[in-house]
Design goal:
Length: 436
């Protein structure tokens, strides 16, 4: 059952409803998580689109209070004209503030600015034991359990966060091409500190000397004098998609041959070394938002997103993972490689210092499930973890190794939700509450 609460009394009524009492309850934003964290079979899903208020942005501090149902897209449409950007953005603007907090999302600037929750100063949270105004000082355990807690601590109504002052609505970007994985990883370790934003697009279909060849794009918000003559921030709000995929492509269109050809063309099209290119915010941060229904390209079978993080000492895991994929003949679109800096204190927040690799893998090849299981083992052995917001298939045996502080998280849930009302298909599947 799906409800759209509009007030705290609606939430209280929802919590005590038969549907919630029998099957549990979970909040939902825009459903951009790749798996099942925002649904609960047999229970109640609360879509928070009515929590859509947005305060004025403080012109000096950048502080703003935003309803949990407001999307980053909507927030940027008002903030960019005022010279402010979200402190952290994922690869799509179509996520809500509630979803951003519950996944403690990261962007291309994690090595400098940390994750979303590093910029949140307070939240209003409806837990099964009542409405709480939570800050990092008045209830640090609850505040940080909510960071990346996948909605299990309660329903976020609104949050106060600090926006980033930007000098223009453009990004000055340096692009470099790297002939293999070692070269690009070395460049990221030695050079990323010079940039606020950094991401490498890695070709996982190559082997030998060219294994993991990559295009590295790094940049920062462009100084105003660099973009003189271009439309100013007041006119540069992100645009709606210009392209669309009108119907589902046949399953199998994205196969080893077509993806190898795409990756090859993409690598050759990238500049070898371009310094100071100027890109719009949409092009640099949210390229997929330019194509509506891009997921239809994968056909009815769809695809798996697989994202892991490993510590710096396990950088080798990234190479082994790409080699395994390449050797197994499981096709993979361009993978996204980023560096994580210091994490937040969240006990199950995903980002931890080191490397993160995100893969898009079309469903279909018979070898895929086995390869992913092998990658899970590899990541767990390396002291790493899988991103819960992108997971749809992890074996639950790995959860306590990958998230060794999950006991702290469960203790908070036992305090604010002793009857285990908040739950989701993800929570059941991975036994996040530890009660299965
Ligand atoms: C194209 C694309 C690119 C992406 N890139 C990145 C990236 O670069 N970095 C990154 O970190 N993530 C990325 N993601 C993942 C995405 O940022 C997260 O999954 C995010 O949580 C989705 O937000 P949503 O509003 O759609 O939430 P949903 O998917 O609806 O829900 C996600 C979780 O948030 C909880 N939740 C939602 N609203 C509330 C609320 N009001 N109160 C309490 N809990 C709530 C839900 O219960 C659920 O557990 C990407 C996703 C896509 C589709």
């Amino acid at each position: 059952m799906v409800l759209h609460p509009t007030s705290t009394s609606d939430l209280e009524a929802a919590f005590s409803s038969d549907a919630a009492q029998q099957g549990g309850v979970i909040a939902r934003g825009l459903g951009r998580s790749y798996g099942d964290p925002a649904q609960v079979s047999g229970g109640l899903v609360l879509v928070n689109d009515a929590f859509n208020e947005c305060s004025a942005i403080h012109p000096e501090t950048g502080e703003v209070t935003v309803g949990s149902g407001v999307s980053i897209d909507t927030l940027l449409a008002t903030s960019i004209p005022q010279g402010f950007f979200v402190p952290v953005t994922p690869g799509t603007r179509q996520v809500t503030i509630g979803g951003a907090i519950a996944a403690d999302i990261h962007g291309k600037n994690h090595h400098v600015d940390g994750s979303f929750m590093a910029h949140v100063t307070s939240m209003d949270l409806m837990t099964p034991s009542g409405l709480k105004h939570v800050t990092p000082t008045n209830d640090p355990e609850l505040f940080w359990a909510t960071a990346g807690g996948m909605g299990l601590t309660g329903v976020i109504l609104r949050a106060t966060l600090t926006m980033l002052k930007i000098p223009s609505a453009y990004v000055a970007v340096d692009t470099t091409r790297h002939r293999n994985l070692d070269e690009v990883m070395n460049e990221m370790v030695t050079g990323d500190d010079r940039y606020r934003y950094s991401v490498a697009w890695v070709d996982c279909m190559t082997s030998g000397d060219r294994m993991g060849r990559a295009v590295l794009t790094r940049g920062d918000h462009a100084a105003a004098d660099l973009v003189e003559g271009r439309p100013g921030p007041e006119k540069a709000i992100p645009t709606a998609p210009r392209l669309g995929v009108p119907f589902e492509a046949p399953s199998g269109l994205l196969n080893r041959l077509s993806i190898t050809a795409f990756n090859e063309a993409w690598f050759r099209a990238a500049p070898k070394n371009k310094i100071g290119g100027i890109e719009s915010i949409s092009t640099f941060f949210h390229p997929l938002d330019g194509v509506s229904n891009w997921n239809r390209l994968y056909g009815s079978r769809g695809f798996v997103q697989y994202q892991f993080a490993v510590p710096d000492t396990a950088g080798e895991t990234v190479r082994i993972a790409i080699e395994r994929l390449s050797a197994s003949k499981v096709p993979s679109f361009l993978a996204v490689l980023k560096r994580f800096g210091a994490g937040t204190p969240g006990p199950i927040s995903f980002p931890t210092p080191g490397w993160t690799l995100a893969l898009d893998l079309p469903i279909g090849p018979p070898a895929l499930p086995k390869v992913l299981n092998e990658l899970d083992d590899l990541v767990a052995e390396a002291g790493g973890r899988i991103y819960l917001a992108k997971d749809a298939r992890l074996n639950p045996v790995h959860i306590e190794t990958m998230y060794p502080r999950i006991g702290e998280f469960r203790a908070v849930l036992d305090r604010v939700d002793p009857n285990g009302l908040m739950t989701s298909d993800l929570a059941h599947r991975l036994n996040l509450r530890g009660k299965n």
